[in-house]
Structures are given as C-alpha cells and as structure tokens.
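step: validate -> pass
step: tokenize input -> pass
step: predict -> running
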Amino acid sequence: MKFELAAFAAGVAIVLSLLQSEPAQLASTPPPRGPFGLSLVTTTDGKPVAHEGFATSEDCALCHERQVEEFDGSLHSVSHHDPVYRAFAELARKEAGEEVYAYCSGCHAPASVVSGLVPGTAEAELPDNVKAGVQCDICHQVDSLSPSPWGEPGNANFALAPGKVKATLRAAIQANPGHEGREAGFLAKSEFCATCHTVIHPTNGLRIEHTYDEWKRSVYAEHGIQCQDCHMRSVADAIEVARTLKPVKVLGTTSGMSAQEREIHPHWFVGGNVETARLSGSEPHAAEAEARLKSAAELTLAVQAAKAGGELAFEVAVTNVGAGHSLPTSLTELREMWVHVRVLDAAGKLLYEDGALDAQGELAKAALRFGSELLDAQGKPTFRPWLGVSFGRKRLIAPKGTERETLRTTLPKELEGELTLEARLLYRIAPPHVLHEVMGEQAFVPRIVEMASARQGVTVSR
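step: predict -> pass
step: emit ->
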C-alpha cells in the first residue's frame, strides 16, 4: 500500500519535515504480511503448530532454576498478562479489529498466533501455556530470523520450531533428558531483540517504536555492545558496560546438572518499568528498574545571568550517560520524562517554577520534556498506536548525547541574598489521563522516579 499524502492533508507539513530530519521514521515499502496475518511471526514451514509444543518457565525451572528465578517478574514473563498491555490490546481489538489484536499478540503471545488460536479464540479459552506470553520456550524455540524488507528486524520477524531441540549459544550441551541443543548465535545479538522492539505500523509503515535504530547509530553498536549486555544483566553490570563500553563477563552454572562454573548469561530482562511490582508482583525487578533509571542520565545547571530587577537566565543540560538507546525510548508518545525546575529566594520563597504537575497530576505541554507526540490522520494527538500516521513533537536524548535548554524569568527589583536553583529529571510510564481512559477502574497513579537532580546557589547582582 503506497504512502498516500492525500489521506491526511492536515499532517502533510509535519510528515514532510519528519521525513527530512528522520528518514528512517517511515518504512520505504509497505509492511508485508506473514502467513499468520499482519505480524511476521511464522513457523519453519509457515503452517500452524500444536500449542502443546510450548512449555512454561515452571517446566524449565526443574533444571534451570537460576535463569527462571531471574526471569520471573520481568515484563517478558507477563507480556500477555500485564494489565496495561491487556487494556491497550483489548481496546485495539475493539476499535481496530481481531487482525490488529493478533498483530500485537505476535510479540506478546507468539504461541497463540502460530498455533492458530489467535485470532478467533476467546481470552478465557486460551490454554495457560499460550497465555504465558514470552516464556523461555519462545526465545529458545526460535529457528531463525526472517528477512526484513526494511533492512532491519521488526514486527516479530522470527520463525518458531517447537520441539525437544532448543536454540542455545552452544551447539554442544550437556546430555540431559529434557532437550537437545542447536547453536543459535542470534540469541546474543541486538537483531534478535529488535524483532519485537522495532514496531512498524502494520498498514501504513510508520515506525512507532525504533529502539534498535537508536542503538544501531550509537557508540554502543560501534563497540559491539548488544542489548543483552545491559538488559539481561544486573544494573551494576549495565553501569559498568556503559562506562567502559565493554561487556562484563558473569561466571556461574548453566543448569542444576552443571559440574563447574563458566561464562553464563543472566536472564533479568530489566528496563525502565518501575511498575513491575504492581504489574508482575516482583519487587526485585521494580528495584532494579528504578536503579537503572537513576543511572541513565546526568543533569547540570549553568547560570548565564542573574540581576535583581532584571533577567535570570540559566541552562539546563541533560546527558544520556547510561542507555544504549535514546531517552526515553520504546513508546515515546506514552513515556513522560521531564525536568522540574524551581528558583527560591534566600527565605525559601518560590520565585519561578517549570515542570510542576497540575491538580490532576498532569504535565503542562510547555514544560521542558522529552518524548514525542503521535498524530492521527487528522493531525490530532493520539495515544492509540493503531491510529498513528506521523509524529509531531519529538525530542529524545541520543546515547551519550546532551540536550540543552535555557530558561528565563524576571527577578524582583528588591531581591536580596542568594538564590537557590533546583532541578529534577523525572520519569513515569504514561500520563494519568491515558491510564484512566484505557484501563478504567483498573487505572492506577503512575509512579514518578527521580532520575537525576542538580542544585546550585546563585549570587544576584544589582
């Protein structure tokens, strides 16, 4: 399907400017269909497979206790059950139809699609192992990555092959009654993660989520640092990787039958979602996510002018020091990252503020914020990915990059003493009004995490 400018005349100027500044935003060719619909997920022969071929993490824990203990509580482990995802998926099913719902399921519950159960099966009737989402037996039963017409992975472009031969990084594994192994080097490559962390609109080609592209153009990719080197590891290891741009080796055992330690791959799968305690019940994952957010950025202040009765001008600079992709990333039209600034006089009186929340907990559009604005065919902002045709505002901080902005205010003539400047970089997964609209009675107040802060005294001239 060709990209029809006439279909959204109200957004023409926005789309053209984005095409000039971000040529990778729109796919150059229409997204293809897979044998199971809009998602590219498939099997080795393109035919449905029995859902019984997919085990759950509980089955794997019999031998791989460490990996399952690390994995349980990650958002991968609840990819189909996560209440936020479920609310969005059901809204997509209602507004865009079963085919779009199945497209989402291609990444959130791949077994449901390749077994032929989705679309067409009621949620309550899906088998438990299918509703388990992205369990061990999804990644470790991928046979290969399918070619992509965009020159990058995306939209679940992988082929599943359920059976007793599991995809591993080593073809030769210890003999055991559970399974055999076949070498699959892609398990340790960013291209594997990108199969689901690059999301391209299934009908109009808009790149909605492009974390892989952000990484590919970064210094991390230049040094061979993969997604797995940070997100499968502990935060402490991820911080070291960001500092040195070198992978951290972790020693341990691969299974309960292993006789000696060797290099292993932890299975934490932690990002920036501090709501994991609420969504998956895992306090450890929530704590890791918070620590990861707090290690991702640095914030600095630089005063340019401060005169009583005149102008106070100061620069706020935010640097992405710890993420191998942009800040924020993923669904940037939902994620909110902003700077809350306050200026206080010597007595503690508030003279200036930017980035404060209103009585409903919402952020003013004029605030110093990072993220994007998704636009529908009429050029209106939308948080429904299936309605998106272009991006309006988009401000992200590239890996190792810095975004700067100068804020200004007029100081009182009678001002005396030293001023105090305070700045806090804050983050939450979505605005409250979006969660309320999508989740209804299940909506919750999103947690706000302080990622970084800065404080500076200022002497005012007269």
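step: describe -> Confidence is low (pLDDT under 50) at residues 1-24.
step: cleanup -> pass
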